[in-house]
């Protein structure tokens, strides 16, 4: 990026002495952001959260204080609005940004593509503009295995072809990745780490924070939890005629605390490197829908009534990660297993039957 013929972006990078500066979590009040805040604080980083609570609750700050003892500096702002974000950058010494700020409901993205493209891209633009203005050279981006589209075989590696996404939500992840890739090519002081999440599940073991879908859950684990609690009547399993051992879809479920720890590693990596790197964040093991249902029943001593329905359009039979690269380069690997995810998801659900709304 040029300004008056002189490249000026991130030129003060060398002045960041301590790798333990503040980390801005844009959209950090949500499911993955809140768990990441806990792990960053545990690792000695200062955390600042900016979130408009479109899909999260301000109650989170009190919950985070109960877990960590820290009153997190937070801003109730729209990350896509530069003027609002300017205050956050102006008032804090930031070492890096983690960009969680985006809409994430696949079905909604099909119905409201313009909202998805506008919101999920404009949050990126405004963050990058502020990073430029305030010389913050490091960004971690919440990407998704959805960028692999329909054509890849599992275990999927980072270097296979991406694209052929099947919904606007997926395309926004793909486009944001491309924007960051292009930017790191143009600005050699910039560091971008793209984390491709597989299927986040579970909750913090305290049961104080967890996943709180705004409407009826789209994703499997929160749906199962709400069936277990009686809030929903029955799980629909979307097809049992896939080419998998039991016919139901296979995914790579990753405990949200493991995922949060991957962000801590990614921040450390971004602070010490330049350019762009992409990492799959999954366990490397796939479980079927029925395996997950049965594990949930076994671990939590509850019954999950279900029926088999037709396939959901756009679903793959099998999707799980090759996460060797994250192991080798970030020194990260998942430590928790499917039972931990089921136990912690249920603990959160039992303690917060209506999510954060009752608090
Ligand atoms: C979905 C999104 C993906 C997004 C990810 C975020 C689709 C097609 N994909 O991934 O873009 O990044 O969530 O977490 O929506 N299932 C049921 N019954 C249900 C819900 C799910 O049988 O009520 C099955 C699905 O068919 C699938 C598995 O459970 O086999 C996991 O589904 P889900 O949790 O929605 O995740 P993905 O589809 O993998």
Keywords:
binds uridine-diphosphate-N-acetylglucosamine, 359 residues, disordered N terminus, 11 helices, alpha/beta, three-stranded mixed sheet, globular
Describe the structure.
Strands 5-4-3-6-7-8-13 form a seven-stranded parallel β-sheet, sandwiched between helices. Strands 14-11-16 form a three-stranded mixed β-sheet. The protein has a two-stranded antiparallel ribbon with strand order 1-2. It has helices at residues 31-42, 60-68, 82-91, 106-111, 113-134, 168-186, 220-228, 256-272, 289-300, 324-330, 338-351, and strands at residues 2-3, 6-7, 22-26, 46-50, 73-75, 94-99, 138-144, 191-197, 199-201, 235-238, 250-251, 253-255, 275-281, 287-288, 306-309, 318-319. The protein is built from eleven helices and 16 strands. The protein is an alpha/beta fold and 359 residues long. Residues 106, 144, 146, 169-170, 199, 218-220, 223, 235-238, 249, 251, 289, 312, 314-315 line the site of uridine-diphosphate-N-acetylglucosamine.
The largest sheet is: 7 strands, parallel
User: How far apart, in Å, are the first and last alpha carbons?
Assistant: 46 Å
One letter per element, helices H and strands E, the order comes to EEEHEHEHEHHEHEEHEEEHEEHEEHH
Category from helices, strands and their pairing: alpha/beta
Tally of contiguous helical segments: 11
How do the strands and helices of this protein lay out in sequence?
Layout: E1 2-3, E2 6-7, E3 22-26, H1 31-42, E4 46-50, H2 60-68, E5 73-75, H3 82-91, E6 94-99, H4 106-111, H5 113-134, E7 138-144, H6 168-186, E8 191-197, E9 199-201, H7 220-228, E10 235-238, E11 250-251, E12 253-255, H8 256-272, E13 275-281, E14 287-288, H9 289-300, E15 306-309, E16 318-319, H10 324-330, H11 338-351
Parallel strand pairs: 3-4, 3-6, 4-5, 6-7, 7-8, 8-13, 9-12, 10-15, 11-16
Antiparallel strand pairs: 1-2, 11-14
The structure holds uridine-diphosphate-N-acetylglucosamine.
Uridine-diphosphate-N-acetylglucosamine binds at residues 106, 144, 146, 169-170, 199, 218-220, 223, 235-238, 249, 251, 289, 312, 314-315.
């Amino acid at each position: 990026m040029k300004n008056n013929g002189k490249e000026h972006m991130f030129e003060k990078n060398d002045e960041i002495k301590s790798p333990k500066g503040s980390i801005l979590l844009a959209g950090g009040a949500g499911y993955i952001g809140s768990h990441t805040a806990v792990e960053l604080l545990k690792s000695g980083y200062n955390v600042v959260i900016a979130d408009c609570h479109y899909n999260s609750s301000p109650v989170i700050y009190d919950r985070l204080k109960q877990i960590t003892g820290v009153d997190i500096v937070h801003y109730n702002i729209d990350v896509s609005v530069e003027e609002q974000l300017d205050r956050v950058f102006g008032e804090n010494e930031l070492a890096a940004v983690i960009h969680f700020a985006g809409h994430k409901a696949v079905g909604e993205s099909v119905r409201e593509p313009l909202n998805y493209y506008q919101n999920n891209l404009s949050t990126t633009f405004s963050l990058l503009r502020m990073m430029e203005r305030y010389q913050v050279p490091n960004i971690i981006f919440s990407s998704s295995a959805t960028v692999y589209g329909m054509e890849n075989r599992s275990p999927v590696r980072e270097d296979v072809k991406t694209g052929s996404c099947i919904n606007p939500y997926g395309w926004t992840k793909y486009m944001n990745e491309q924007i960051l890739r292009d930017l790191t090519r143009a600005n050699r002081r910039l560091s971008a780490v793209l984390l491709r999440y597989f299927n986040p599940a579970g909750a913090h073991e305290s049961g104080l924070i967890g996943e709180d879908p705004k409407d009826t859950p789209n994703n499997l684990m929160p749906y199962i939890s709400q069936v277990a609690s009686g809030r929903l009547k029955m799980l629909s399993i979307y097809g049992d005629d896939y080419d998998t051992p039991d016919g139901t879809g296979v995914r790579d479920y990753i405990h949200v605390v493991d995922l949060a720890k991957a962000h801590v590693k990614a921040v450390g990596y971004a602070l010490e490197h330049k350019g762009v790197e992409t990492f799959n964040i999954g366990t490397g093991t796939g479980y079927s829908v029925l395996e997950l249902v049965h594990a949930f029943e076994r671990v939590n001593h509850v019954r999950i009534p279900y029926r088999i329905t037709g396939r959901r359009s756009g679903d793959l039979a099998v999707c799980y990660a090759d996460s060797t690269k994250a192991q080798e380069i970030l020194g990260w690997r998942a430590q928790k297993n499917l039972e931990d995810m089921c136990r912690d998801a249920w603990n959160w659900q039992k303690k917060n039957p209506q999510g954060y709304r009752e608090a």
